Amino acid sequence: MRTAVRSAAAVTPTSPRAWVGRRLGALGAFVLFFGVWELGVRSFGVKEYLLPPPTTVVAALVQNYPKVLESALVTTHEILAGYALAVAVSIPLALAIAYSRFMEETVYPVIVFLQIVPKIAIAPLFLIWFGFGFTPKLLLVFLLSFFPIVVSSIAGFKSLDPDIMDFARTTGPDRGACLQRSDFPRLSRVSSPA
Hints:
Blueprint: H1 2-11, H2 16-44, H3 54-63, H4 65-99, H5 101-115, H6 119-130, H7 134-158, H8 162-170, H9 185-188
């Protein structure tokens, strides 16, 4: 009986008072953090160029708002373009690696090897090769996004339950619809009769 009461309490939505209480707690934590920051910088006489107090940061943001907004829009454009390029390249590549033994044995080790190269070391090379324009920033965002997407996608494609693929094949879709190739053993096996 107690277990049923506990599980019912866990399923019921939280009350508005509890929701507001959590939000106020988070807001209080932010206020406390910025208050300690401000007090610490002022009390210990930390130079503004090393660690400016939050009030100075907010004042500079308000004073330079148009320039900051313009720069933020340019940065957002570069981030979205780099991420879109990474998705467009990494998902098909991950699909090919997951369903082709040849791609898995040849391309995947190269991807794993290149993943360990520190991206911050490549950034100056991009600036030297491509200048300070849009291209080096696009490529840096692409590199930062590409490896996590491709590795996670490969893991996701390979973790597909073979029984689900067997069921999908019995309903009649073609091989392309099942995202299945005969040289990928986990997905191509037929369920043995019990």
